[in-house]
Amino acid sequence: MQTPRHVAIIMDGNGRWAEQRKRPRLIGHRAGARAVRDTIEFCIDHGVEALTLFAFSSENWARPQDEVSGLMRLFLSVLDREVDELARRGVRIRFIGEAQAFSPDIRKRMQTAEALTAGNSSLTLVIAANYGGRQDIAAAARALALDARDGRIDPDTIDEAMFATRVALADLPAVDLCIRTGGDLRISNFLLWQLAYAELWFTPTLWPDVDAATLQAAFDDFSRRQRRFGLTGAQVSQQQA
Ligand code: IPE
Ligand code: IPE
Ligand code: MG
């Protein structure tokens, strides 16, 4: 049975979960934090090497100010509450996205979490915070352009493999499975480059309701898929024989 080495999740539906209960949207985000804990547990138990979670997109700043500030407070309290336990569980924590946009106290906790867990190896947990796929690709293009301008690389040598080393997650296994909860069938500017050959799995389940059974259904579906990478089904069967 094939298990995904790297799982990426668009954790969507917190707001609707709360609205269905006639509660403020922030209650949904808080309930979503519990689902994050269960998901990390599930991934450790299943031997997943890397888990990338979309926590806050570069577009989410445009939400009502009280929701944004509530999310920032939640981010802070989750970092305070969970990092020590994750460190004990052997989780290596990383962040992708433009961290400069966050307040100094959040940035400090992000740096501490990364430093504290840098030597861990049970699961690499990547939190995408103020992340956007287009921003990621633009930053890679900018870095290569600067290298070319300053004579460190010859622009003629820029190819897919070189570009791939400059986008986020370059040092991790390719994303095998991307899950989106909440019922919408879109990528919402998540990992655009990195999802090129990922298997996509969508569920109407709202993120706070996600549990081990939901994740198991995604993993079971993944294990039944034939990943062809442009080849024919017969070629792939032959390779696997
Ligand atoms: C996802 O849930 C969490 C963030 C974007 C921070 P939403 O807040 O987008 O929930 P819905 O889509 O409004 O239900
Ligand atoms: C995607 O959800 C971002 C996160 C889960 C952090 P959104 O709720 O922002 O996506 P759209 O706006 O419905 O596309
Ligand atoms: Mg949403």
From TrEMBL:
<feature type="binding site">
    <location>
        <begin position="186"/>
        <end position="188"/>
    </location>
    <ligand>
        <name>substrate</name>
    </ligand>
</feature>
<dbReference type="GO" id="GO:0005829">
    <property type="term" value="C:cytosol"/>
</dbReference>
<dbReference type="Pfam" id="PF01255">
    <property type="entry name" value="Prenyltransf"/>
</dbReference>
<dbReference type="InterPro" id="IPR001441">
    <property type="entry name" value="UPP_synth-like"/>
</dbReference>
<feature type="binding site">
    <location>
        <begin position="57"/>
        <end position="59"/>
    </location>
    <ligand>
        <name>substrate</name>
    </ligand>
</feature>
<feature type="active site" description="Proton acceptor">
    <location>
        <position position="60"/>
    </location>
</feature>
<feature type="binding site">
    <location>
        <begin position="13"/>
        <end position="16"/>
    </location>
    <ligand>
        <name>substrate</name>
    </ligand>
</feature>
<keyword id="KW-0961">Cell wall biogenesis/degradation</keyword>
<feature type="binding site">
    <location>
        <position position="12"/>
    </location>
    <ligand>
        <name>Mg(2+)</name>
    </ligand>
</feature>
<comment type="subunit">
    <text>Homodimer.</text>
</comment>
<dbReference type="GO" id="GO:0009252">
    <property type="term" value="P:peptidoglycan biosynthetic process"/>
</dbReference>
<comment type="function">
    <text>Catalyzes the sequential condensation of isopentenyl diphosphate (IPP) with (2E,6E)-farnesyl diphosphate (E,E-FPP) to yield (2Z,6Z,10Z,14Z,18Z,22Z,26Z,30Z,34E,38E)-undecaprenyl diphosphate (di-trans,octa-cis-UPP). UPP is the precursor of glycosyl carrier lipid in the biosynthesis of bacterial cell wall polysaccharide components such as peptidoglycan and lipopolysaccharide.</text>
</comment>
<feature type="binding site">
    <location>
        <position position="25"/>
    </location>
    <ligand>
        <name>substrate</name>
    </ligand>
</feature>
<protein>
    <recommendedName>
        <fullName>Ditrans,polycis-undecaprenyl-diphosphate synthase ((2E,6E)-farnesyl-diphosphate specific)</fullName>
        <ecNumber>2.5.1.31</ecNumber>
    </recommendedName>
</protein>
<dbReference type="GO" id="GO:0008360">
    <property type="term" value="P:regulation of cell shape"/>
</dbReference>
<keyword id="KW-0133">Cell shape</keyword>
<dbReference type="InterPro" id="IPR036424">
    <property type="entry name" value="UPP_synth-like_sf"/>
</dbReference>
<feature type="binding site">
    <location>
        <position position="63"/>
    </location>
    <ligand>
        <name>substrate</name>
    </ligand>
</feature>
<feature type="binding site">
    <location>
        <position position="61"/>
    </location>
    <ligand>
        <name>substrate</name>
    </ligand>
</feature>
<keyword id="KW-0460">Magnesium</keyword>
<comment type="similarity">
    <text>Belongs to the UPP synthase family.</text>
</comment>
<keyword id="KW-0573">Peptidoglycan synthesis</keyword>
<feature type="binding site">
    <location>
        <position position="17"/>
    </location>
    <ligand>
        <name>substrate</name>
    </ligand>
</feature>
<dbReference type="InterPro" id="IPR018520">
    <property type="entry name" value="UPP_synth-like_CS"/>
</dbReference>
<keyword id="KW-0808">Transferase</keyword>
<feature type="binding site">
    <location>
        <position position="29"/>
    </location>
    <ligand>
        <name>substrate</name>
    </ligand>
</feature>
<dbReference type="GO" id="GO:0071555">
    <property type="term" value="P:cell wall organization"/>
</dbReference>
<keyword id="KW-0479">Metal-binding</keyword>
<feature type="active site">
    <location>
        <position position="12"/>
    </location>
</feature>
<feature type="binding site">
    <location>
        <position position="180"/>
    </location>
    <ligand>
        <name>substrate</name>
    </ligand>
</feature>
<dbReference type="GO" id="GO:0000287">
    <property type="term" value="F:magnesium ion binding"/>
</dbReference>
<dbReference type="GO" id="GO:0016094">
    <property type="term" value="P:polyprenol biosynthetic process"/>
</dbReference>
<feature type="binding site">
    <location>
        <position position="199"/>
    </location>
    <ligand>
        <name>Mg(2+)</name>
    </ligand>
</feature>
<dbReference type="GO" id="GO:0008834">
    <property type="term" value="F:ditrans,polycis-undecaprenyl-diphosphate synthase [(2E,6E)-farnesyl-diphosphate specific] activity"/>
</dbReference>
